[in-house]
């Protein structure tokens, strides 16, 4: 696979806007390991090799274990995650796959049991940012190194 273009050079404004979204997510009070696992899972769902590579490494840098990083593609089938994390993962999967059925009431209410409205808004934004990057990276064939 060959990179099609460097989107930062083609249109720097896009990169700046996306960078601003990432900087906003970094200011949230969410657990940094959870943020990285969310970014990883969104990238897995979207099939973005560049971002899966990056977020796997970032999760480990944030203190996440390799075991949990490796299990993210089947988080619901493992005992490695708390109910709170599972609620977050279910929510962000439905946000990422929004065209399938939206976010169900059951999923939203389970997230509300574990997170404040502010935290849910932050989780949604945390899913949207890498989802947008995935679409850019896949479209222009960004290459993981």
Overall tally of domains: 1
The number of helical elements comes to: 9
CATH architecture: Up-down Bundle
pLDDT < 50 runs, ≥5 residues? none
How big is the Rg? 15 Å
> What is the name of the CATH topology?
AhpD-like
Order of helices and strands: HHHHHHHHH
* Shape field: globular
Question: N- to C-terminal separation?
Answer: 12 Å
CATH superfamily: AhpD-like
Q: How much helix, percentage-wise, in residues?
A: over 70%
Report the count of strand segments: 0
Strand content: under 5%
Description of the molecule:
The protein is mostly helical. The chain is built from nine helices and no strands. α3 packs parallel to α6, α3 (32-46) crosses α9 and α6 packs across α9 (117-140). The protein is globular and about 45 Å long. The two termini are 12 Å apart. The model has no long low-confidence stretch (mean pLDDT 95).
Brief descriptors of the model:
mainly alpha, 0% strand, AhpD-like, 145 residues, 73% helix
Compact overview of the structure:
With 145 residues, the chain is mainly α. The chain is built from 9 helices and no strands.
């Amino acid at each position: 696979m060959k990179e099609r273009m460097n989107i930062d050079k083609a249109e720097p404004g896009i990169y700046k806007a996306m960078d601003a979204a990432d900087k906003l997510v970094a200011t949230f009070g969410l657990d940094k390991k959870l943020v990285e696992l969310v970014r990883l899972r969104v990238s897995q769902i979207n099939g973005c090799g560049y971002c899966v590579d990056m977020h796997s490494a970032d999760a480990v840098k944030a203190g996440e274990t390799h075991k949990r990083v490796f299990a993210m593609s089947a988080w619901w089938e493992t005992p490695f995650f708390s109910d709170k994390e599972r609620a977050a993962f279910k929510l962000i999967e439905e946000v990422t796959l929004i065209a399938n059925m939206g976010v169900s009431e059951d999923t939203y209410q389970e997230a509300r049991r574990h997170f404040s409205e502010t935290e849910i808004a932050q989780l949604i934004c945390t899913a949207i940012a890498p989802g947008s990057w995935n679409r850019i990276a896949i479209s222009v064939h960004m290459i993981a190194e």
